Amino acid sequence: MNAKKILAFIASSAIMCTALASCGDKDNKKDTKSTSQAEQTSTAAAEPETEAETVQANTDAVISDNSIDVLAKPIEGESAVSDENAEPAPEFDGSVAADTGTAFLALNTDDWWVQYWGEAGEPLSYNAGVANIDGNGQYSVSLTADSDGARYAINKDASVPVTSNSMGMVAVMIKNGEVACPDAVITITNIYVDGVEIPLMKKNYTNTETGNIRANIFNEYVSDDSLPKDAKAAEGDLFVNGKPSDINDGGYSAQIVNKADFENWTNITVYFNVSGLDHDNDTEQW
Is residue 218 within 8 Å of residue 256, measured between CB atoms? Predict the structure, then answer.
């Protein structure tokens, strides 16, 4: 009789364990499903909708106080862990950094990695044309993808030409212009893509952002009805006491070119005038 009771107890215990394990599996599945749904909700809520959010999502960037400091994004698929046995990356001459008071052509391609923000070592820093702003006058800035440094940065092979680029954002900037020449006004006059002049559809304005004096050529995150309140032109301020001034007639824009004109390019040159300073430059730049 005792043996039968013992066997019955063991069988009952086994059934209870199986039931508990089954319940645990269901709870785990439920938790996993909830986690998956939460992750999907989080991902959907994180879709970038502004220039700052796009930069944050696609680059290593620091964003604070509506300022954007963009750092180079690693090539997709490239391991972040260094290989001690890997050969060091070759160094190339001609990488240009923009100093304080120097104008440069800032550009990001659509992938927000191939770029130039006035820093040495960036993919488009090689043979970049910059201009020291030393007074009112005419200047030019330029970028090229036709260099060993650019080809290696983009293709990991300096012998492979860069056959196609794009343009996500492009602007003429004066590095630390807020300190070096805060009254400077940039008026873009001509833009050439691979030697062909492209039409200007609207007039550019000048504003200050992240300490730089800036004139947008194409920035899809700034609509014509949301221009910055410090926007100005050679003719005067676009806003007075926060309201559009008499010269703000709808002709000024952050998108003064057709983006399609930049779908394939190797060289870009932008000519512009600087006004608003208390002296003229000594010699014309072009």
Answer: yes
